[in-house]
Amino acid sequence: CRQTKCMANANASQDQVDSAITDINAAHGALLNSDLDTALRHAMRARDAAEKSFSDPSILALLYFPDDQKFAIYIPLFLPVGLPLVVAFLELIKEHRRAKAKIE
Questions:
Q1: Alpha-carbon distances of 74 from 3, 59, 67, 79, 87, rounded to whole Å
Q2: Which of 34, 37, 61, 73 is most buried, judged by most C-beta within 10 A?
């Protein structure tokens, strides 16, 4: 299954996430010691690692829902709105045909 493969590959970006967490903790520690240059360096590395992890191809597939989940979400949302519209449209067509038959 496509989803299973994606989940297995998602572990590849775990090192980047760990690096981002380590760097942000180091930045926090440097800020507590008033070492702004070191804090900035660690914060920039943390941001870069987090961005790389988020845009990793093995993670991107996990950001999208499979089609069956989309249907499960959208059908209960749109069916109560769409069904009366379809019925009303069919009634308009019937009325138009009746009016056209009266004219002829």
A1: 21, 24, 10, 8, 19
A2: 61
Other Cβ atoms less than 10 A from the Cβ of 56: the count is 17
* Structure tokens that stand for 48 in this block: 């870069």
Between the alpha carbon of residue 92 and those of residues 78, 82, 95, 96, 100, the distances in Å are 21, 15, 5, 6, 12
* Structural tokens at position 26: 């180091």
Predicted structure pTM score = 0.51
Place of tokens 């002829």: 104
Q: Where are the alpha helices (DSSP H) in 1-104?
A: 2-9, 14-32, 36-54, 57-60, 67-103
The pair of three-digit structure tokens given for residue 66, joined into one six-digit string: 């499979």
Token readout for 68 is 């069956």
Q: Are 16 and 75 in contact (CB under 8 A)?
A: no
- What is the reported pLDDT for 86? 94
